[in-house]
Write a structure and sequence with these properties.
Chain A is mainly α. Chain A is built from 19 helices and no strands. Chain A has two domains: 178 residues, no CATH class; 203 residues, no CATH class. In chain B, a hairpin with a 5-residue loop joins β1 and β2. Classes of the chains: A mainly alpha (468), B alpha/beta (371), C alpha/beta (161). At the A-B interface, α1, α8, α16, α17 and α19 of A face α1, α2, α3 and α4 of B.
Chain lengths: 468, 371, 161
């Protein structure tokens, strides 16, 4: 189920809210309700996926019990942690990377004149990348002693919780552990959740979806000209931001409606003045997760500079690969890793540090734009040919005349202009939703009604991060 | 309301509840149980769940009522006609999938020019074994002939034939007989103010029809005798084009004035009746909706087929299959062997975008066995 | 505290609304035997199981209408000369539409209660033969060249599950 669909907005959400608030105000009952409804939400794509989620939940929970046993030896604790990591990541790798491995193995075998191996057609269960990390963070935290063993239903509820199960934000157990045991519900908190939900909904429906059609047309084109290629990647940069940020806002908003507080996932990332700064603002829950569960365990920056650079490279490559089983994501991770290392070499400053702030932002934005080409392209050759087009090396084609009509419609230009303006608004949705005033409410109410109307005329478009 | 928070929550919940409440109340007033209960009717597998979700949305009274108004607002305020139609200048509309077929890389499973060429050669060779001549006439996409009504472009770019050129060149190399309407229409655009395509429709205008019929008749001419069997009369009509209909918004349709069209209807001079096909003709025409417009649609007998017949001086046989000229017409031909019994010439029309989007691709279809 | 009680009450009302909508049978269950049209239209009346829906056989076509050939296994014969267990091929007009909404200017006489084609489901159909005698238009036939018998034309199609 997708947040911006008729069934979610008009049937699922009212039903879940009704059931939730009709139940006695005990978290046991309410967590159980959220667990059941979250499984329905998740199982809507394919009911069999519920078993997979339940399996990962159970394995990690059992491992956490073994780790937390008072009489467990250090060895037993380590083995239990290893088992949780291997089984969880093994499941993730099988569903997400096995096909990629097979394709590349076949390429290598073909080079040596051997026949292809038979390909297994594996369906990627939605959200597996996210809830696997959720589960692992819990087991690792239990191992580290930074969190206590939860009740199974609380843990299962944390893993399945529908606002964040399929595309984040990547919430660590210990940040919601308190909310799972006891949480307060007040109209102002509920209303701030509604505010974030509406703002996220608006970003997705009014901005991300129309921009997506522009990006699709440019990236799918035979040979876009230079202007079309830059326009397309700009549209994609805006699309992915408003899509993912919109989703995150809705997730946090829904969480608040049910008494949870999730972390902010974006902080005006395109206002970043360097790539280092960008990663403090973009998909914050992932970058902090990678920092705490990968970068620091690898040694972080408390080691030799060379080792530190290697750690950054490993983290960014794995971060790229986490997004999808494709060389394009690995190159995207490498691109960002290289830029981060170059800034680390220059003392955590970009090479364009001496430029005025607007130009620093512009330079960072262009570097990020180029990284999105790798991220959006379907293959490395596609990415390279797109770069060719961006830098004026593409041939002329009749098709570009028609492509211009698909890209530069007044509706598209208007949406792009609004999106560009919103990028540089200082107060982001999170801050804006903290306090509600009458003017804000009088703006939000008709906006929500309007966005619902627009949703009626749009085809259902899933969030981009559902595929990761 | 005590506070902004209370007000916002009330509005939010009211909006969320209003739609299912209206739906339930309406269904109840018609003596029906809530459609939402359909979810309990089928086993919850992905197909059934997604079908349920689709039905819930399709049946929504709120959506049915409001969508046309939203579409109209988007159409007139933002010039956004949705995914199927692009709005051009001066009331011109264009079929977006056709444009995408020209601008976008092929998706997996889509046909290529090579597929079309191979099917054409196979068909030509099969017909040749029976002494039948094949003439291929690709109908240009509207946007290939009038790109300047979509975007501003140089005068030399007023006919875009790059996509079709590869096919026509391939035909020339394979000695396939073709009628190049791009050249015909380029000449016509230079010399005549008359429009070759309808503004609101994805198809050609009566003028475009007549030029095409004339070009094909000229190509056939030497081998077919002509007589004065047919006359013609002017029939005017007003209609909304297919590109208005596929918007599925009565509000937009009501706001857009229908297009006035002057057609030339062909009739038999001996009986006064409108032109009709003869399944025993020596000319068989195969094609898609470009053959249907004005011929089977109103006013009737004013389309390509009738005009070709008039120029040839005798009736032709035809198989018309909307959007199915790449393969479906040949499948239909194989089910009707009698149509080939006396045929000497087959004219095969298909629209340019079918090089990529032809229904069922470009299959090799055997001819029906001759008895 | 009062506000929390307010939310609680509102939630309860929502729950009552939702639950009151439940536990009633769906109106979509229809007794096809009472349908007069299925008894009178066409020359053959069968209940048959839709064996499969081939890839690409049913899709929403924006500009044009078409018919698709679908493969059935006959489960019961009510009228006409067909045998139980026979495989038949049936053409359905604009199969992406509910049968009750598929009739148009070109194909005026058709309908039924079937909402959607799903492989494995049972259909109670009134059929004509041969299809070419009753329908002139686009046919998507994924079984082209793979069967020799007549192709039936579905005039009326009810769900029989």
């Amino acid at each position: 189920m997708v947040f911006t669909t008729y069934i979610f907005v008009f049937y699922f959400l009212p039903l879940v809210l009704a059931g939730y608030y009709a139940l006695p105000p005990s978290t046991t009952w309410r967590n159980a309700w959220l667990l059941v409804t979250s499984y329905i939400f998740y199982g809507w794509w394919n009911p069999w996926f519920i078993l997979l989620m339940l399996g990962i939940t159970t394995i990690n929970y059992l491992c956490s019990l073994l780790i937390a046993r008072p009489d467990a030896t250090a060895r037993q604790r380590r083995w239990s942690l290893t088992a949780a990591v291997v089984l969880s990541l093994g499941t993730l790798c099988f569903f997400k990377y096995f096909g990629f491995f097979q394709v590349n193995l076949n390429h290598v075998l073909t080079l040596f004149g051997t026949n292809d191996t038979r390909m297994l057609d594996i369906v990627l269960p939605i959200g597996i990348s996210f809830y696997t990390l959720h589960a692992l963070s819990y087991v690792v935290d239990v191992y580290r002693g930074t969190t206590h063993v939860a009740r199974f239903t609380d843990f299962a509820c944390y893993i399945a919780l529908f606002p964040q199960s399929v595309a984040g934000p990547i919430i660590r157990y210990n940040t919601v552990a308190h909310d799972l045991r006891t949480r307060s519900h007040t109209p102002s908190r509920f209303a701030s959740g509604v505010t974030l939900f509406i703002l996220g909904f608006t970003k997705k429906v009014l901005l991300a979806n129309p921009l997506g059609s522009v990006a699709d047309a440019a990236f799918g084109a035979h040979s876009p000209d230079t202007a079309a290629a830059w326009f397309g990647v700009l549209a994609y940069a805006l699309q992915i931001y408003f899509d993912f940020c919109g989703y995150s806002d809705m997730a946090v908003g829904l969480g608040r409606m049910f008494g949870f507080e999730f972390m902010k996932n974006f902080d005006a990332p395109y206002q970043a003045e360097s790539i280092t700064d960008f990663w403090h603002r973009w998909h914050i829950s992932l970058s902090t997760f990678l920092r705490d569960y990968l970068y620091i365990p690898l040694g972080g920056n408390r080691c030799t500079p060379a080792r530190n650079y290697a750690n950054i490279a490993v983290v960014m490559l794995l971060g790229g690969l986490w997004h999808g089983a494709n060389w394009t994501f690995i190159v995207w991770g490498a691109w960002h890793g290289a830029l981060l290392i170059s800034e680390r070499l220059a003392g955590r400053k970009p090479l364009y540090q001496r430029l005025p702030r607007p130009l620093r932002i512009a330079c960072t934005f262009i570097l990020v734009l180029c990284s999105w080409v790798w991220f959006r392209a379907e293959s490395l050759p596609d990415a390279l040919s797109y770069f060719h087009a961006m830098f004026g090396c593409a041939g002329k084609s009749d098709a570009n005349i028609l492509l211009a009509a698909q890209l530069y419609g007044p509706d598209k230009l208007a949406v792009l202009a609004v999106a560009m303006i919103l990028l540089f608004v200082r107060r982001q949705a999170h801050e804006w939703s903290e306090t509600l005033t009458w003017p804000k409410v009088l703006l939000l109410s008709p906006t929500f009604a309007f966005v619902l109307l627009v949703m009626f005329s749009q085809a259902s478009i899933p969030f981009l991060y559902f595929r990761f | 309301m005590k506070t902004p928070s209370h007000f916002l929550i009330t509005i939010f919940l009211a909006l969320l509840l209003s739609v299912p409440l209206i739906q339930t109340a309406t269904e109840a007033s018609h003596g029906k149980w809530p459609g939402a209960l359909e979810v309990f009717q089928y086993w919850p597998n992905p197909a059934n769940l997604h079908a349920f979700e689709r039905h819930l949305q399709d049946d929504s009274l709120t959506i049915q009522t409001l969508r046309p108004w939203i579409q109209a607002t988007q159409y007139f305020a933002l010039r956004d006609a949705g995914q199927q139609v692009l709005i051009g200048k001066n009331g011109w509309l264009f079929y977006q999938p056709g444009i995408s077929a020209a601008t976008q890389r092929p998706h997996r499973g889509e046909s290529t020019t090579a597929d079309a060429l191979a099917a054409a050669i196979h068909f030509r060779d099969a017909l040749a074994t029976r002494g039948i001549r094949l003439i291929i006439m690709p109908a240009p996409n509207k946007e290939s002939i009038y790109p300047d009504q979509l975007v501003s472009c140089e005068p030399q770019q007023h006919i875009l034939d790059e996509q079709m050129r590869a096919f026509l060149d391939g035909c020339a190399k394979a000695n396939l007989e073709t009628v190049d309407l791009f050249s015909v229409y380029r000449e016509a655009r230079r010399n005549s103010p008359d429009l070759l395509y309808l503004k609101q429709d994805s198809h050609w205008s009566p003028f475009g029809v007549e030029l095409a019929a004339q070009a094909v008749a000229l190509r056939i001419g030497a081998s077919v005798p002509t007589t004065g069997l047919y006359g013609h009369r002017i029939v005017s009509l007003t209609r909304h084009g297919d590109l208005v209909h596929i918007l599925r918004s009565p509000v937009i349709e009501a706001q857009l004035a229908p297009e006035s069209i002057t057609t030339t209807q062909i009739y038999r001079t001996d009986t006064g009746g409108s032109y009709t096909d003869d399944t025993g003709s020596d000319v068989l025409v195969l094609g898609d909706s470009f053959l249907r417009i004005f011929e089977q649609d109103e006013p009737g007998s004013a389309g390509f087929i009738a005009h070709l017949a008039q120029r040839l001086g005798h009736p032709v046989a035809s198989i018309v299959n909307d959007g199915g000229a790449s393969t479906l017409v040949r499948q239909e031909l194989s089910r009707h062997p009698q149509l080939l019994a006396k045929t000497k010439v087959v004219v095969w029309e298909f629209v340019e975008r079918d090089l990529r989007l032809g229904t069922e691709g470009w299959q090799m279809i055997p001819l029906p066995s001759s008895h | 505290m009062k506000s929390v009680a307010g939310i609680h009450l509102l939630g309860f009302c929502l729950a009552v609304f939702v639950l009151s909508s439940c536990n009633k049978p769906s109106y979509r269950f229809t007794n096809t035997d009472k349908d007069a049209k299925i008894k009178t239209l066409g020359t053959v009346e069968v209940t048959a199981r839709l064996v499969e829906i081939p890839d690409g056989a049913i899709f929403q076509r924006d500009l044009y209408d078409y018919a698709a050939i679908l493969k059935y296994e006959v489960v019961a014969v009510h009228r006409g000369t067909l045998e139980k267990g026979t495989t038949i091929y049936v053409g359905h007009y604009d199969p992406w539409k509910p049968r009750s909404k598929a009739a148009d200017q070109r194909v005026k006489l058709m309908g039924g209660t079937l909402r959607e084609f799903r492989s494995g489901s049972l259909h109670h159909m009134a059929l004509e033969t041969s299809m070419d005698d009753h329908y002139l238009g686009g046919i998507v036939d994924k079984y082209f060249g793979k069967h020799t018998g007549p192709t039936y034309w579905a005039v009326w199609t009810n769900a029989a599950d």
